[in-house]
């Protein structure tokens, strides 16, 4: 029996039409990444950041204005939908409470210089004198052995006023001779207390002047 050779051939594709050729030639070349990125908000600073690139190099003023308007509208919409709004208790005006800022901003002014230590602070630091929890050296009370209880150092019923209300006052002849006309031994304690307060005020003013001269003012 005779055999025949059979060869399988694929049909020849028809030629492209003119319209197909134009479509292929008009396809745009690969472009840069112009994918739109969602804006981010810092409502505490009323800040919106849109990282999406602008078209054109450089972008036109119209594109910049359009993008700015879009960002401003997005910021206002986000504020109105996320921040609580309440009425002012006095004039009934509307107030919006902003969240804490998230973007750190630089300071407008430099950091203040440290305050110059006073003469007493330098002396206390040198001698190791510290303050207790009440803020006063040694506390604000002392033990009165005569009364058998703790009494305030100063103020109402203070230890510094001890003896002023006594009926009998021990007279120191030396101090009595040094009194001026009209002064009495009974009022000597009060005069000493006032003079001590005035000396303290003078020392405080002197310390302030010394600190200003040292350039410690901030």
TrEMBL record:
Provide one Gene Ontology cellular component.
nucleus
Polar residues composition bias: residue spans? 1-10, 18-37
Where does this polypeptide localize?
A: Nucleus
- Is Nucleus found in the keyword set? yes
- Gene of origin? RRS1
Q: What is this protein called?
A: Ribosome biogenesis regulatory protein
Q: Which family does it belong to?
A: Belongs to the RRS1 family.
Residue spans making up a coiled coil are none
What is the documented function of this protein?
A: Involved in ribosomal large subunit assembly.
Cite the entry's keywords alphabetically.
Answer: Nucleus, Ribosome biogenesis
- Spans annotated as Disordered: 1-65, 92-116, 145-218
- Sequence ranges of Basic and acidic residues compositional bias: 106-116, 172-195, 201-211
One BP term from GO: ribosome biogenesis
Please give the InterPro entries that the UniProt record associates with this protein: Ribosom_reg
